[in-house]
Design brief:
Tachylectin-2, Chain A; about 350 residues; 22 strands; about 40% strand
């Protein structure tokens, strides 16, 4: 498809926060593969279920086959069957013609989904205050999103407190975790900023797989010791950022790429067209920059970059061919590819230095 580029972002060009990757040396977005669906529904975090299907969540719309008003719920859950070229989307919980009635028809949003050992987890923004001053609760489903239960504790709101954003995804139903990270579920997010401030740091939490529903079991990455071993602490005041960008750090997704043996992180540093893609050997870095855009997809800075994830199910064996599920919102997202407020899907390929892999 022809791509009409939006005007460059006003002001000085933004520089990436990390040096260029020496392993992933190029990226190609195949805009001829670009597909959209579910117009009027945004967010679309994704995880790989035990039945070999992908599971997603959306906000403020009717999901697949619905619209901004037709079947609209605050939060719904969906399933994708088939491959990326010819996928089929089904509304599991809420939305138009759902398989099950909405569990969150009026309030609730999530950008954090994870399947692990048959259980689907979601970290839910309860929308009980003015963003970002909101409480978050952990919810889970044992029947693939049909019904949901919630913990009786919160990740509470408050300036300087941890705001869970997304789960780190690996393979099918939580499989394929590298040995050094095995036994834990990983959740990352920001620190609630003070009024009129913008968060530019990302923090990482972990919890033993068998204790995901226990608040006291969560620990936060607190840096490296003198032997370069990770330190973890239950006290968030001792946490250290795993990623930072002075232009902003709205996390779009993190996934392990087994073909390249690295972690891929997307962060929107401003709005829909301001996407950064980074890689690292560990989920706490150090990071290198693969790409850093000011007009990705011909979009601009006005609005929000919400999600950009690469489901491991759709990665090639060598890790170099991926499919991105992404969501953007606002005036800037109505430019270029016009991806505003819908499910978006596109193929991309990564070029590596002489076929190199991260060790």
């Amino acid at each position: 498809m022809a791509l009409l580029l939006a005007p460059a972002t006003a002001g000085v060009a933004q520089e990436p926060p990390y040096p260029p990757s020496q392993t992933i040396t190029g990226i190609t977005w195949h805009w001829d593969t670009y597909q959209t669906a579910a117009i009027g529904s945004d967010l679309w975090p994704v995880t790989w279920g035990p039945d070999d299907h992908l599971y997603l969540a959306w906000g403020d719309g009717g999901g697949f086959g619905g619209s901004d008003s037709d079947g609209r719920v605050s939060m719904g859950f969906a399933r994708i069957e088939g491959g990326p070229e010819h996928f089929h989307g089904f509304n599991v919980n809420g939305g138009k013609n759902p398989e099950h009635p909405a569990s969150f028809p009026k309030k609730g949003k999530t950008a954090a989904l994870l399947f692990d050992r048959g259980v689907l987890y979601a970290s839910i923004n309860l929308q009980d205050g003015e963003w970002p001053n909101v409480n978050h609760v952990l919810a889970w489903s044992t029947n693939q999103g049909a019904t949901w239960a919630k913990c009786d504790w919160l990740f509470p709101k408050g300036v300087g407190l941890f705001q869970p954003g997304r789960f780190l995804n690996f393979g099918k139903d939580g499989a394929g975790v590298p040995a050094a990270l095995a036994g834990y579920v990983y959740l990352y997010g920001g620190k609630q900023p003070a009024p009129r401030e913008t968060g530019g740091s990302v923090f990482l939490a972990r919890v033993a797989r068998e204790k995901v529903r226990e608040r006291d079991a969560y620990q936060f990455f607190s840096g490296l010791d003198a032997r370069s071993q990770t330190k973890w602490n239950p006290d968030f005041t001792l946490a250290r950022p795993i990623f930072g960008d002075g232009h902003g750090a709205a996390t779009g997704g993190m996934v392990y790429d087994p073909g390249l043996r690295c972690y891929l992180l997307t962060c929107f540093h401003t709005g829909p067209g301001q996407l950064g893609l980074f890689e690292a050997r560990q989920p706490w870095g150090p990071w290198s920059t693969v790409a850093y855009y000011t007009d990705w997809g011909g979009m601009s800075a006005e609005g929000e970059g919400l999600t950009c994830e690469f489901p491991q199910k759709w990665m090639s064996a060598d890790g170099s061919t991926l499919w991105a599920i992404f969501s953007v919102y606002g005036a800037g997202a109505k430019q270029g590819i016009k991806a505003h407020d819908r499910f978006n899907l596109i193929k991309l390929t990564l070029a590596t230095a002489a076929g190199a892999k991260l060790p």
